[in-house]
Amino acid sequence: MLVNMNDVLLPAKKGHYGIGFFNAVNVEMARAIIETAEELRAPVMVGTAEVLLPAMSLERVAEYLIPMAQKAAVPVCVHYDHGLTFDKCMEALKLGFTSVMYDCSTEDYESNTAKVTEMVRICHGRGVTVEGELGHVGDNEGTGKLENPSDYYTDPEIAADFVKRTGIDSLAVAVGNAHGDYKFPPKLDFERIETISGRTGLPLVLHGGSGLSDSDFRTAVQKGVCKVNIFTDIDKAGKAGIEKGLAAGASSMTALIPYEIEAMKRVVCNKLELFGSVGRAE
C-alpha cells in the first residue's frame, strides 16, 4: 500500500527499529526492494534522488514506482530524496510522491530554515511528508567531499530550533556519515545521535548507509535513527549479479535480469533484518 513517511517512521520510532530507504532507478531495483519487503513483511521506503535523475527521469520513476507501491502487500513510502531545487520537489509532488526531502543544507541556516518551512507548508497541505537536513552530509569522493567533515556535524541545540521552526517530519543528520563508498571505516558520533533525538523528538535519518558495519547500524537505530538510506550496496550488487549471469553463460538481457534481481534482493534482505523491520508491516 502507498503511504507517507510518517506512516512508517513514527511506528519505527515507537518500536525502536529502522526503516530502509532504497533508491530504485529502474524496475529491476524496484522489484528487488518491494518483493523482498513483501516476503519479509517489512515496511519500506523507495524512490530516487535528484543526482540520480540522469539515469532515469523523475516522471519515468513515478510511472513504475507509484503503481508498484499501491499494489504492494506492505506499506511502501515513495520518497524523493535530496531534492536540491524547489521546482523538482514540486514535480515530485505533482507526480504522486508521498514524501520529499528538500535539501538546503549547504545554504546558511536562516535560508535553509525559510525554504524548508515553505516546503513543509505546501507538502503538508497535500498530505505529503518532508525530510530536512541540518549540518551537511558530504561525499566520500567528488564535488561533495568535505575537507573537515566534523565542521559540518549537526548541532543538537540548533537542530531543536530547526525542527520547531520548520515543522519537518524527519531530520537528516551529519554525524560522521558520508555518501558513496567509504575509503576508511567511518566513526559515527553515537552520542550526538542520541542527543539530537532527545532534543528534537523526531525520527532521525542516516544518509550514506552503504558501507557501515552491522554494529554501526544497530547502535545508530538504538540511539534514534529511524530511516537508513541505501543505494551504493544494491547498485553494486546488481552489477555483480549481471557479471555472475554472464559468467554462467546468460546470452541476453532477459536472461540476466533474474541474476541482477537475486543479487539485489540479498542486500535488501540483509538490511531489513539488520534494521529490525522484518515482520513489522501492519
3D architecture notes:
It is a single chain. The chain has a single domain, classed as TIM Barrel (Alpha-Beta Barrel). Helices cover 48% and strands 16% of the residues. The longest helix is centred in the last third of the chain and has 23 residues, at 253-275. The chain has helices spanning 5-15, 27-40, 58-71, 86-95, 109-124, 156-166, 190-200, 214-223, 232-247, 253-275; strands spanning 2-3, 19-23, 44-49, 76-83, 99-102, 129-134, 170-173, 204-206, 225-230. The chain has an 8-stranded parallel barrel with strand order 2-3-4-5-6-7-8-9, surrounded by 10 helices. The protein is built from 10 helices and 9 strands. Helix 9 (232-247) runs antiparallel to helix 10. The protein is of the alpha/beta class. It is globular.
CATH topology descriptor: TIM Barrel
Q: N-to-C terminal Cα separation, in Å? A: 11 Å
Number of domains: 1
Main sheet overview? 8 strands, parallel, barrel
Query: How many β-strand stretches?
Result: 9
Gyration radius (Cα, Å) is 18 Å
Q: Taking all residues together, what is the mean pLDDT?
A: 91
DSSP strand content = 15-25%
Keywords, please?
alpha/beta, 8-stranded parallel beta barrel, TIM Barrel, globular, 282 residues
Which secondary structure elements does this structure contain, and how are they paired or packed?
Elements (H helix, E strand, L loop, with lengths): L1 E2 L1 H11 L3 E5 L3 H14 L3 E6 L8 H14 L4 E8 L2 H10 L3 E4 L6 H16 L4 E6 L21 H11 L3 E4 L16 H11 L3 E3 L7 H10 L1 E6 L1 H16 L5 H23 L7
Helix pairs in contact: 2-3, 2-10, 3-4, 6-7, 9-10
